[in-house]
Amino acid sequence: MNTPAAFLKPGSLAALLLTAALATPALALDYQIHGSAAQGFALSGGNNAYGNSENGSFSFYELGLNGTVELAPGLLASAQLQMRDAGANDNGALRLDYGLLDYQFARDSDYHLGIRVGRVKNPLGLYNESRDVIFTRPSIQLPQSIYYDSQGLRGVIFASDGGQLYGGYSFGGHYTSLVAGAGRSKNLTRAEERQLFSDGSDFPGNVKLSHFYLAQLRDEWNSGTDRMAFSYLHANLDLEPDPGIPVDAHAAFEFYVLSYRHDGANYSVSSEYSITTSKGGGSLTGPLDSKGDGFYIQGDYRLHPQWTLMARYDATYADRNDRDGREYAATTGGNRHSRYAEDFTFGAHWLPDEHWGVWAEWHHINGTSTVPKLDNLGRQLESDWNLFLMMVGYRF
Amino acid sequence: MGTQIQGAAESVAGSAMAARTVASGFCTALVIALCAFALLANRPVHAQAVEIITSPDRSAIQIDRPLLLALFTMRVRQWPDGQPAQVFVLPDASDIHEKFCREQLGTYPYVLRGAWDRMVYTGTGLAPNIVRSEEEMREKVRSNKGAIGYLRTPAQPEAALSRSIANPSSANSP
User: Fold this and answer.
1) With contact defined as beta carbons under 8 Å apart, do B93 and A39 qualify?
2) C-alpha to C-alpha distance for A264 and A300, rounded to whole angstroms
3) Do A32 and B123 touch (CB under 8 A)?
4) Chain A contact probe: residue of B67, B122, B132 with most A CBs at under 10 A
5) What is the pLDDT of residue A16?
6) d(CA B99, CA B48)
7) Quick one: which H or E segment has residue A79?
8) Torsion sign over Cα A188, A194, A199, A205
């Protein structure tokens, strides 16, 4: 072991400088750690959401911790751990939200190109990628016409193990970007299956997700204060029952979303429209060929940099050719109101500093197609209901 | 534009005495006035409250609006020549940051924050470095390679021109 004095001999000094020079790039690795935590509260009349909300539910929180390191110029490695509870629809289990390598391999002043591999977040509409961080979404509960929370496909849509190619190009005041990705096939988890079947039953076998592709084309102008996007997602779901179980079913889903948002100094307007088609069949479902749609329009008004008011109309229809569910009721004897949901939302949020935020919103909902079924097992669903949500969040 | 016209008008007015002395003096004054106008026209940044500053190694690079947006939205992490970019900003609530967003980028602090959040919470980018004061901004941009930031435009135009403020070696060059 050399003493400090021994290091200062001429030869040692050169070695020390060389060591320092070599060590510098490693020490200068740019990295960041960020996180967010939020606790929610739900109170409702008519139906439950986020747990047993008719009695007031705190079974609603989200925690995330992420790290990103720049390994070399243009090369990032990043990962986020997350825990989320949302009544019966999420269980607070620790999961890897994303874990990826992102390499931006070409760039100039007006374009860039890159690739991401690993567990990547899927761009779909304006907010899907970062939907579980309250600070990045436009309300406590996202508009259900586009961002399904309880219809079973949430987990399938928000991230996938695979890769994405991305690129962006600036011209004439516009910035246009494209992300295209593919995810590898996987079997749904038990929790995802329970949500998909929505009656809480476990399917005896596997539900396999395959042929997962997505693309998002975005255009931004006026320095990003106007944004338009077109998103597309395709996935196949196949039931693979255990031996001896005589059922089978398969479906191919296509999901299209058209999005627009304008941001002004004091106000924002955003609107999205989606169409979902499912085609397939099998002994369990019979022939399947449906086309549902939905849209919302939201306005935000900033009273003050810290205070924002919002109002939204959000409508979801299981069948765009039978929006009021009459045909469905006539042919199946089911409830008309299970085929649609129209949600009027009024809310406010307060961001007192760069770390804290408080949100509150009230939903008046007509129709039950977006009611989280697992929170209401064995209950008669009410077609007219109210939901009050609050959330307090911290981030760094 | 208002400042430019006023500047040119003042130059013309200032040269009125010379024009009375000799006929050719008028031509000289006109040339001076046009030069003053051209000089002002080349530095529209002086009409603005906030100006871009870069580290000394970046002083020769032309920065247009698309590159400025690409760098400050953090969607591009390197300069066009491959040098990693170090982006410095003041906190969202800072008046200077708000002016910078409006004047130089054409956007608002909350929109820029939204773009950073989207990258930070999807693992596809880094947030910019936040500095707490203009003094810290000046120091960090001066001392980091590939750095870019902004400062309030000094009251006296001759004190520092454009973004060379962070580059002591070129601060005296025209």
Assistant:
1) no
2) 10
3) no
4) B122
5) 46
6) 9
7) strand A75-86
8) positive
Does residue A32 sit at the B interface (CB-CB below 8 Å)? yes
Give bridge partners of residue B152 from the DSSP assignment.
Answer: B50
* CB within 8 Å of A293: residues ≥ 6 apart: A145, A273, A274, A275, A276, A317, A320
Q: How far apart are CA B138 and CA A243, in angstroms?
A: 70
Radius of gyration of chain A (CA): 24
- Check if the beta carbon of residue A367 is closer than 8 Å to that of residue A383: yes
Residue reference for tokens 């479902």: A285
Q: What is the mean pLDDT of residues A120-145?
A: 95
The predicted structure's pLDDT at residue B46: 47
CA distance A299 to A181: 31
pLDDT on residue A77: 97
- CA proximity to A314, closest of A292, A343, A348, A276: A343
Contact A130 B105 (CB under 8 A): no
Query: In this complex, do B108 and A263 lie within 8 Å of one another by their Cβ atoms?
Result: yes
For residue B110, what are its two tokens? Answer: 């909350």
Q: Cα separation of A182 and A161, whole Å?
A: 8
Exposure b/e, A103-112, CB count within 10 A at least 16 = b: ebeebbbbbb
Non-local CB neighbours of B46 within 8 Å, separated by 6+ positions: B3, B40, B153, B157
Residue B111: which of A302, A125, A104, A259 has the closest Cα? A302
Owner of token pair 């320092």: A20
Average pLDDT over residues A162-179: 96
Q: What is the ipTM score, two decimals?
A: 0.88
pLDDT higher than 70, residue B104: yes
Which of B63, B124, B131 to mutate to probe the A interface, most A CBs <10 Å? Answer: B124
Q: What is the total residue count of chain B?
A: 174
Measured CA to CA, the distance from residue B129 to residue B143 in angstroms comes to: 14
Assess contact for B112 and B100: CB atoms under 8 A.
no
Confidence category of residue B20, pLDDT binned at 50, 70, 90? very low
The pLDDT assigned to A191 comes to 79
Q: Is the pLDDT of residue B59 over 90?
A: no
pLDDT in tens, A294-322: 999 999 999 999 999 999 999 999 999 99
Q: Tell me the pTM.
A: 0.83
Amino acid at A62: E
The structure tokens listed for A207 are 């539900």
- Distance in angstroms (rounded) separating the CA atoms of residues A359 and A300: 13
